[in-house]
Each structure stands twice: as structure tokens, then as C-alpha cells.
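To assess whether ligand presence alters the predicted conformation, the chain was also submitted together with nicotinamide-adenine-dinucleotide. Input:
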Amino acid sequence: MRVLITGGFGFIGITLAKVLVELDYEVTLLDSLTVQVHGEIPAFEAPAGVKCVRMDVRELADRPEVLEGMDVVYHLAAETGTAQSMYRVVHYVDVNEVGTAALIEGIGKCVRRPKHVVLASSRSVYGEGAYVHESSPGILVVPQSRTKEQLVAGEWEPVDGQGRVLTCVPTPENLGFFPGSIYAASKAAQELLLQAASTALGFRLSIFRFQNVYGEGQSLQNPYTGIISIFFNRAAQGIEIPIYEDGRESRDFVHVSDIVWGLVNVVKADLPSATVMNLGAGQPTSVLSLVDDLLAATGCNVPVRVTGQFRLGDIRHCYADTTRAKTLLGYSPQVSLREGLRRFAAWASSQPRHDDKLEKATEELRKKGLAV
Ligand SMILES: NC(=O)c1ccc[n+]([C@@H]2O[C@H](COP(=O)([O-])OP(=O)(O)OC[C@H]3O[C@@H](n4cnc5c(N)ncnc54)[C@H](O)[C@@H]3O)[C@@H](O)[C@H]2O)c1
């Protein structure tokens, strides 16, 4: 099996590559090694036996030879900061959408075209995700993104059109697209572009929508995404951890090894093209509870402050309905949050320290009116 991973030096890509090499796959990593993720002088270790191509995914239309004869292309290269996407709009659309378009054009120019493309999409395409009202528990509703006025008033929980508070339930794949950020819209666009091309160009397409992935290898330098890395960095340097809203907002945190299990096994499964599957732990964890568990895993003791501040475009809750991946792939996440945080903290503690850039990133958002 010949496999190309775009964004292969990201932490999901590297973890995937290590597993594929063990399975005797011939692996090529394509990555531009962006400064935001890797720093000015990228310090990385390519797994033994992989081939590395340093290039921008947007060049693939002009360099189709990189794609020639691949059995599988995992398309992971992307800009990934939700809040940052709200002001670097052209850049996010360019990397995520034009990058995907370049991949498709490159595939079209190959003599031996890749047979299977696996896209790393995101739960963000669902916006606030699935909720119900107690009067009609069988009917899923997707609340509108919360407005600035609601957030300023501390009305954190999403409400329906009549102002009634709703209850968050697991989000299934058929909910539809309700992107609440440019990042989310660009991930939805990646899905649509690949769906539009797969039949005509003759490749099978598999789409995963990941929840919040964390784990060993996650950038400790990127202040725009990766809440666990950001909080770890502060805790390790004895800096207070600020928590947005009231701290009861929640996410579905899934360890990278469970994501990689899905990525590896979808290639072996005989599924129809354009199958979309959620991958997550399938349960919500509040940010306050996450910080408790993270501090316990690191052994650090720093103040934790619930700030009541917020970012526009952030969702309140959302967790995955993983029934489809369970049924079609036998997916069953193996790493509990506590165990995953223990593994992450052990790895992160051995890494060089990086200056904390969270406040600078937040200040940037404040100036643009995107954080209050
Ligand atoms: N981590 C998560 O919680 C999460 C959740 C949902 C979806 N995803 C998706 O998973 C994929 C991988 O994310 P990750 O968490 O490993 O992120 P990451 O930032 O660790 O990795 C992304 C990699 O892409 C590379 N890259 C960025 N722009 C590029 C370009 N123009 N050309 C080539 N390479 C480029 C970066 O250098 C980086 O190595 C992304 O598509 C992301 O949208 C991640």
C-alpha cells in the first residue's frame, strides 16, 4: 500500500504515519511545516522509513507526480484555528479550500490516480450541534450561534427561536451543515469539493468529522488551537489558567490514538464512497473538569480563573453520536480522558518550553471585536 498524508507532520499525521509504517505501508508525508505549528526552526523527527516532501498542499495541481500511483491519500493539511479564521479569512479559505481544489486537480492529472481519499473534516461543520427541547425529545434542533448581546448578558446556554433553553444531545452525521466560523465553513467546503470530484475522477472518498483531538505530539507552540496544549504550557510555567464563559461549556475530547484507529481501519473496510462518520469519545466534558484532570495529570498547581470572557464563533457544547462508526467500522474509543491526559502530560513534560502566546492571541481577537 502506498500512502500519502498531506499535513503529515501535524500531530495526527505523524501518529498515523507511525502506525502505517508498522503495518508495512509505504508512507510519504507532505507538509509545508508552517511556523504557527512548528516554530521558526521546525524540530521534528520523521518516523523511520517514511519519505518526506516539504511543499505547500496548494502546489499539488502543478506537482501531480507526488500523487502518482498512491493507493490512499489522507488529506489532513489545513489551518485549524477557529477564532483566527474569523479575521484571516482569505488565508483560511485559500489553504483549506484552494488546497483541496489543488489536490483534486493534481489527482485529475495523474496517470495512475489515487484510489481512495480520506478527509479529516471536523465537528465544527455542525455549528452548535444537536439539541432537543424537553417538550419534544425526539426532534433535533440546531440553535443559532449565540449573539454578542446574549454572551455579554452571560446567557451562555443556546436557546431556540422562542427563547427556550435546550438540552445538548449526541450529534449525528445527518444533522446538516451549520458552520459558525470560517474554519467550519472551509471544512464543509472541503467535504463538498471532494464529493463533487470523487465519482468523476474515480476515487473512493471517506470523510471523518473529528471532535476535539488531543495527544502526544500536539503543537505546544500554537496559541490558536489545542486547548489542552495551551493550558499545559501555562500550567508548566506556573501561569494562571483563564477559562472563558462560566467554565461549564463542554467539548468531546478524543485521544489521537482512537482517531488514528479510525483512519487506519477505514482503508480496510469496504464502505460506499462518500461515507461520512463522526469520530469522538462520544461524551461531553466541561472545560472546568478538563482543567482539574489536566492539573492532576501534570502535578502542577496554578490558579484557575473563570473569566466570564468569551470569543465570538465558539460553540457552547457538542459531542458526537458515534453509532455510525461503531456499526460500520467497529469503532470503540479505548483511551479514557484521564489516561490520555496522563500520556499527554508525560510526553509534554519532556518537551522544550515555549513562551506562552495565549494573551497575545486573545488581545488580537479583542482588538478585532471577536473576543470580549
Ligand atoms: N486536532 C483537532 O482537534 C481536529 C479536530 C477536527 C478536525 N481536525 C482536522 O485534522 C487535520 C489535522 O489536524 P491536526 O490537529 O493534526 O493539526 P496540526 O496543526 O497539528 O497539523 C496540520 C499540519 O498541516 C500543515 N499545513 C498547514 N498548512 C499547510 C499547507 N498549506 N500545505 C501543507 N501543509 C500544511 C501544518 O504544517 C501541520 O503540520 C486538519 O485538517 C484539521 O482540520 C483536527
